[in-house]
Amino acid sequence: MPSADAPGAVRWKDVVYDETHNLSLRMCVPPAGAGKVPVLVYFHGVGFCVGSFAEPNFHAACLRLAASLPAVVLSADYRLAPEHSLPAAFDDAGSVFSWLRAQAAAGTDPWLASSADLGRLFVSGDSPGANIAHHAAVRAGPGGGVRLAGCVLLWPYFGGERRTASEAACPADVFLTLPRVASRASEGDTCAGALARMLESSPLAVEWRPQRRHRRMKLLCKDLTYGRLKVGVGAVIDPSPANQG
């Protein structure tokens, strides 16, 4: 249902984008009079296994982005582990883009038809959501009335079959470490338990071989930076203690 009390006159509503998997996105539209504005597709974080666009922190952030940029913000849910391992979330991101292409062709959603410039589409996310945004940008093809103009990765999480330097070191002063997750899981925290299983199984191995992961990321970032896309990166791939300060 559309909101009745969104701050700054930002309107929002929930829309089903994938009926097969019962997946929805939350559409946040800036105040009337803004005209046609860019579209920002956003994927939330929290370990590939918990979270939703409906959580207060993600919802408030997307309202603020819609008002401040301004932009039409589409905050999309996706299937979660451990019930749905990767690449399910990547496939769901592709479904968001397919839904947008269908909207560009048919113009059935009045909010998008009046406010969204689908020729200026950006994709973003935080932590694992940034990983999903990365894959969405790589997979997105041209045409269909939708043009991907940029990709913004916030604190991106990338992993593989082998631990990165920061994972292996497990510095004690960071928010989330493997021992901490394992400890909470042993105490019966089901969400943390799911996260621990996800980390131990290294789900990104389905996409990358460890010996090629970093080289491919360098090439990919170069392509995204100097090719047809603009990229903003909010964190380094492997934030080892030596690089923090």
Strand segment tally: 7
What is the chains' assembly state? single chain
Number of helices: 8
Backbone CA Rg: 18 Å
Global shape: globular
Task: Give structural attributes.
single chain; 245 residues; alpha/beta; 7-stranded mixed beta sheet; 7 strands; 38% helix; disordered C terminus
Descriptive report:
The protein is an alpha/beta fold and 245 residues long. It has helices spanning 56-68, 88-106, 110-115, 128-139, 165-169, 178-186, 190-201, 210-226; strands at residues 11-18, 23-29, 37-43, 72-76, 116-126, 148-154, 230-233. Strands 1-2-4-3-5-6-7 form a seven-stranded mixed β-sheet. The radius of gyration is 18 Å and the shape is globular. The chain starts with 10 loop residues before the first strand and ends in a 12-residue tail after the last strand. The model is unreliable at 187-245 (pLDDT under 50).
Question: Can you describe this structure in just a few lines?
Answer:
The protein has eight helices and seven strands; from the N terminus they run βββαβααβαβααααβ. It has 245 residues and is α/β, with parallel strands linked by helices.
Helix and strand topology:
Elements: E1 11-18, E2 23-29, E3 37-43, H1 56-68, E4 72-76, H2 88-106, H3 110-115, E5 116-126, H4 128-139, E6 148-154, H5 165-169, H6 178-186, H7 190-201, H8 210-226, E7 230-233
Parallel strand pairs: 3-4, 3-5, 5-6, 6-7
Antiparallel strand pairs: 1-2, 2-4
